[in-house]
Amino acid sequence: MGKPLIYIVSGPSGSGKSTLVAKLRELPGLLFSVSCTTRPPRATEASGKWYDFISEEEFDRRARRGEFLEYAQVFGRHWYGTPKRWLDEAREKKLDLVLEIDVQGAAQVKQKMPDSVAIFVLPPSRQELERRLRERGQDSVDSIARRLERARQEMQRFQEYDFLVVNSDLERAGSAIQAIALAARSSRRAMDSEARRILDSFGG
Question: 10 Å Cβ neighbour count for 156?
């Protein structure tokens, strides 16, 4: 195995992307990148599982030292970033890397690593997305309105992604995202180094 494949998963808040990332992580040979954020943790969140929660001062220090593969400000408030160390660890352990990041971060990673496999998770409709946001009970009415507007803006950039997964049925969407990952691993470009090794065993 040569350089790691980078899987980027994006989607609006409430689309179910974290659940689908969990399905993706069931596959062997994957490392999940834990992002840093300046937002406060929710009641159900612990630092180090999905996010490392750090201060704005610490985030700024790491950004100035060039420690992030990508970073962006979301909703004009909190910062999110992917530490480069996850890519280094993936290389060392010969694993593929999964990034759950927003469209701003995805564009940065795609620019740096065009071979990354970018997957966008779509909700089945605006009405369903609003229902999910309301039912999870984590956001105010104003916050839900902001998230719906941001979802509209994010989904206008779907063409920047290699694959789309509509999360209307969790089992079907989970199978789809796993199939995308496995197909990407088996692509000719991803298999070049392995194919070369096999060809060499036949004497070139």
Answer: 10
The residue type at 13? S
Task: Supply the pLDDT for residue 75.
Answer: 72
Residue 131 has pLDDT above 60, yes or no: yes
Alpha carbons 72 and 108: distance in angstroms, whole number: 9
Please write down the long-range contacts of 59-63, taking CB distance under 8 Å and 24 or more positions apart.
62/36
Arithmetic mean of pLDDT, 124-142: 89
Contact 71, 65 (CB under 8 A): no
54: burial class by Cβ within 10 Å (0-12, 13-18, 19+)? Answer: middle
Spatial CA neighbour of 20 closest among 159, 127, 172: 172
Domains and CATH numbers, the chain: 6-33+95-201 (3.40.50.300)
Q: Check: pTM over 0.85? Answer yes or no.
A: yes
Contact 83, 67 (CB under 8 A): yes
